[in-house]
Amino acid sequence: MTHVLIVDDEPSICWAFRECLTDEGYSVDIAGTAEQALQLATRTIPDVIVMDIRLPGLDGLQAMSQFRRTSTNVPIIIMTAFGSLKTAVSAIDGGAFDYLTKPIDLEKAIVVVRQATVASQRASTTEPSPTIHDDDLIVGSSPAMQEVFRRIALVAERDVPVLITGESGTGKDLVARAIHQHSHRKGAFVPICIPALSETVVESELFGHVRGAFTGADQERRGLLEMAGGGTAFIDEIGDVSMNLQSKLLRVLETGELRPVGGGDCRTATFRLVAATNRHLEQRIADGNFRSDLFYRLNVFRIELPALRDRLDDVPALADRFLQNASRNGHHFRLSTDALAELQSRPWHGNVRELRNAIESASVVCRGEVITREHLPKPVQSLTSGFASPALDVSASLSEAVRHWSEAQLISEALPNGDLHDRFLKIAEPPLLTAALRHAQGQRGDAAKLLGIHRETLREKLRRLEEDSSSPN
């Protein structure tokens, strides 16, 4: 019997579909949210999915991409009451089998479901095409990324909380998905970005609510954390969560129970928590903006993602992966030598996300198969994130300045052999020593500790600097 999964938060739509499809001989499951649908699909793999675009929590287009990771050949029929060209294109480009507008013509919808059933049966008799999973998208052979892979493998089968830290664009969400994919958990992976939720409904979205809990609560609703039961709840941007909500999350983690808004009875929380942030939580604690007790509950196992500028050797492999995604209709791109050199020379303040965007932009501009330096967009200027301190941006600029200075010195015919390091120290060391002394309020012992050198070594360096400054030019 063909199994159809209906995903819509309008009970009347679900009821009408169930009645018609049951009469046609189909078995039917109904879900009011994408998260619930993902969980149902792990129990019974559907042959056809009919899903609304506008859903509470994950919308239909976001859910479609998640279904594609586990059920690549299942036809997905998208419904919407707010049809537009952009929505239709997004749905079809995202892999939707067909696109229906509300109010639904049930006779037409049944015809489309029949067509999708035939397509599903054909797909099941053909060899499935290879798919790229989320963990395959975490590319890197650098020592820093090998350590990330190791830590993912270590923690995946454990049910301890995981805290993923790193600058914006480093791929924290992919790491969270990889942890879930390699775990023993059968439930859904539910991504949650609390700062993106309205403050008036955030508790209801997280913990659910009972009927009559507030105006408009006409029926009971499960929260995102409960929907992640048996699976993984991924809370992104945990560093931006309000103090009030932090205390409630802490209570759930400590007691293993959650209480819906307006409800008196607690429910067992069976989700595994993975959290991510691009902020320094230790600094947030010192500033009074993050609870230390919640931090210690989250920081059981930590995975720190390196910035792309710290693993530039991984740029060719990442670029190759993004070029695969950019290829279309048999048209395959490749990078010229100068384009690859340019990519490996940039500071990548936006990390892997910025690199992916650069490749996608170049693939649009390039009319042939070879992407050259001219096709690449201009580098994005430094944008200081919460995790990356201004010092990191200054460090990147300093590194770039040193590189330019060194190259200029190396091509100079007047440069004596073996003099480059001394010339650099004469330029770079005085401001470093001066800054350390100023910070230590003139105390040479304290300044030496800051610099990591012996006090006598600092004294000798300062003596030489005084001699150099007093000697005639």
Relevant terms:
single chain, 473 residues, alpha/beta, 5-stranded parallel beta sheet, 14 strands, 47% helix, 12% strand, globular
SSE topology:
Elements: E1 3-7, H1 11-23, E2 27-31, H2 34-43, E3 48-52, H3 60-70, E4 76-80, H4 85-93, E5 98-101, H5 106-125, H6 143-155, E6 162-165, H7 172-181, E7 189-193, H8 202-207, H9 224-227, E8 232-236, H10 243-255, E9 257-258, E10 267-268, E11 272-277, H11 281-286, H12 292-298, E12 301-304, H13 315-326, E13 334-335, H14 337-345, H15 351-365, E14 370-371, H16 390-410, H17 420-439, H18 444-451, H19 455-470
Parallel strand pairs: 1-2, 1-3, 3-4, 4-5, 6-11, 6-12, 7-8, 8-11, 13-14
Antiparallel strand pairs: 9-10
Helix pairs in contact: 13-15, 17-18, 18-19
Largest sheet: 5 strands, parallel
Q: Report the count of strand segments.
A: 14
Strand content bin? 5-15%
How far apart are the first and last residues' alpha carbons, in Å?
93 Å
Radius of gyration: 28 Å
How would you classify the helix and strand content by structural class?
A: alpha/beta
Mean pLDDT across every amino acid position: 82
Shape: globular
Helix fraction by DSSP (H/I, runs of at least 4): 40-55%
Strand order of the largest sheet: 2-1-3-4-5
Runs with pLDDT <50, length 5+?
126-135, 388-392
The total of helices stands at 19
